[in-house]
Design a protein that fits this description.
The chain is an alpha+beta fold. It has 8 helices and 12 strands. The chain has helices at about 1-20, 35-70, 85-115, 225-235, 245-255, 295-300, 305, 320-330, and strands spanning about 125-130, 135-140, 145, 150, 155-165, 170, 175-180, 185-190, 195-205, 215-220, 285, 290. The protein has a 5-stranded mixed sheet. α2 (about 35-70) runs antiparallel to α3 (about 85-115), α5 packs across α8 and α6 packs across α8. The chain is elongated, with a radius of gyration of 28 Å. Bound molecules: dinuclear copper ion.
Length: about 325
């Protein structure tokens, strides 16, 4: 019946629609929508393999279907011709896959060497993984920030990756694929953005309770904007009024967080929390999890482990007034 035929169509059409929904270019973590030369090389490799595999699939399945129909059993007496081996065919179907595999292997190995380590002396950014946030240092520029990596667009950037605790993985699919961050090791990663813009990153290696909310953003600025950003980030912060309630409240924060111009840990001391010197200028808080606005900042300060399970930052039972003061102060750290 027409109704039944329609019903039978609904499932495959639905499944196809569902699968195709994953192909939107808008997806922030889409490694098939590369936005820089490093990610482009990785995507090229993927598409090369994909099209070779597609060709093999179509030919093999086509040959299979042809054989099924052309040589199907037509009557009970129908016995096919019996064959025991065919040397020429066997040589051909050994050589063709070997050639295809070499066709994939040669560019793969070339790309592995091409992308391993940093080649150009671009901007150097040191990223340290922590449970569950990203420490970001620019050793040559004397800038320290967290969870937001500014880079100049259209310039090579060298990211050096390491971890303070467990293995994390630095992943910005549209710019540079992903790379493990291993404690005690420093691994270099090339990264470059073709255009100014915001590129989303995440931790791609399970690293404990709040692995899923260990996010970050790479902000590619036009060259003059990047220089202006660096200039601002180098400025110390304005300390709270001496003797104020805020100054007392802030002492608890300063046990783990550095604020240049207010309190800096002694050199070599372990870094326990994100540097807050210019926290007000960042797009997000809580490692890319919440937008940086007064409402979300207040929600975070009210009960950190509730927002980020396992957070090192405890619930200090701050009063509404203390939270309001902190939100205003942190927001002013532009
Ligand atoms: Cu860090 Cu997962």
């Amino acid at each position: 019946s027409p109704g039944g035929r329609l019903g039978r169509l609904a499932l495959p059409v639905g499944v196809l629609g569902f699968l195709l929904a994953a192909c939107t270019q808008e997806y922030e973590y889409n490694s098939l929508a590369p936005a820089g030369p490093v990610a482009e090389k990785q995507a090229d490799l993927y598409f090369l393999t994909f099209w070779i595999a597609t060709g093999v699939f179509v030919l093999v399945e086509g040959a299979l279907l042809f054989a099924l129909f052309r040589f199907r059993r037509r009557s009970t007496e129908d016995t096919p011709k019996q064959i025991h081996g065919n040397t020429r065919l066997e040589i051909i179907w050994t050589i063709i896959p070997a050639v295809l595999l070499a066709g994939v292997a040669v560019p793969t190995i070339g790309t592995i060497f091409d992308l391993s380590g940093c080649q150009d002396d671009g901007v150097e950014v040191e990223v340290v993984g922590h449970q569950w946030w990203w420490e970001v240092n620019y050793p040559e520029l004397q800038v320290t920030t967290a969870n937001e990596i500014h880079i100049p667009a259209r310039q090579p950037v060298c990211i050096t990756l390491t971890s303070e605790d467990v293995i994390h993985s630095f992943s910005v699919p549209r710019l540079a694929g992903k790379q493990d961050m291993v404690p005690g090791r420093t691994i270099e990663l090339q990264l470059q953005a073709n255009e100014p813009g915001v590129y989303h990153g995440e931790c791609a290696e399970y690293c404990g309770l709040s692995h899923g909310i260990m996010l970050f953003q790479v902000v590619a600025d036009a060259s003059p904007d990047f220089d202006a950003w660096v200039e601002v980030q180098r400025q110390p912060a304005m300390p709270p009024a001496p003797g104020s309630e805020l100054e007392t409240t802030l002492q608890q924060c300063l046990a783990c967080h550095a604020i240049q111009g207010v309190s800096e840990p002694p050199p070599g001391a372990p870094i326990k929390g994100p540097n807050l010197t210019h926290v007000g200028s960042r797009r997000t808080i809580v490692a890319g999890w919440l937008e940086n606005n007064p409402r979300d900042l207040a929600r975070w300060l009210r009960d950190p482990p509730r927002v980020k399970p396992g957070s090192l930052m405890p619930d200090y039972n701050l009063t509404d007034e203390q939270i309001e003061d902190l939100v205003a102060y942190l927001g002013s750290l532009q």
